[in-house]
Amino acid sequence: MAGRVYSGPVTTRSSSSAPPPGSADGTSSSAEASGLAVGAGAYAIWGVLPLYMAATAPASAMEIVIMRIGFSLLFCLLLLAVLRRFGDLRAALGTRRRVVGVVLAAVAVAVNWLLYAGSVTSGHVLQASLGYFINPLVNVALGVLLLGERMRRAQWAAVAIAAVAVLVITVDAGQVPWIGLGLAFSFGLYGLAKKRAGAPVHPVASMTAETVVLLPVFVGGTIGLAATGTLTTGLHGAAHFWIMAASGVVTAVPLIMFATAARTVPLSVLGILQYIAPIGQFLLAVTVFGEHMPAGRWIGFGLIWLALIVFTADHLAAARAQRRLTRRA
User: Which of 24, 55, 211, 279 has a C-alpha 20 to 30 A away from that of 219?
Assistant: First the structure.
């Protein structure tokens, strides 16, 4: 998936805040409703992304990622030209701290893309779903481990339940769900790198900067695939080429939709919307890709969902408390 923004640096208008001067409550509510629809649409696209990945066959997971880098860069450059925002690209790489952040984010997102593509091409869409279900909990854990943040009791309980769930899934499958855990942690580290890079820039410029950093991977990877006879893009007909080329659009469009939603939708609401994606992946894994769901796996996923209920309830309660403090202030 790898397009969503870590919740830390996103600034959204609280649902309790007053509308800006010169606007009416109705206008503000309409903007929030539109943002809600756009945000839900972004997560819905990420939820059905396995269908696109499956359509790229016979391309390997490595080729999917390599082509995604190249076509995403091309699409983002076109968008920057249309939007006339090349200045934002310079800002994204304007300081040493930003460059380090972009490099770390690019590496993390490339690993995330590879794991995600590998999960679909190897028939492990359920693990992709698992990874994005537990990602919010991993974000909290990384905040504690790397940023010195403190977790509330309910958050500790949610993380503990999720840990038990992973243990149950591991025992049932006879192996650790490395793909799911890798997706959760790589995307968590991606968000962390974005957060530490400083004030956020335009999402298209940010993504362009990351793909610029990954350009050597695209060039070297394409040469390597061609040399080993495993390159399919351009060699399996026009339809396959355009499916691969669509990776740029598939990558950038939901990101832009999310960024649009983040301007008007409260962060607490976005935190709930994010579950649309793994729910969609889970349903596709079971109904379309026919992945087996033994009793142990159902129990494991049930515990994950319980952890998320606890986590979300605590998150909403904390958001309400913060709004009350804001009103009193």
Answer: 55
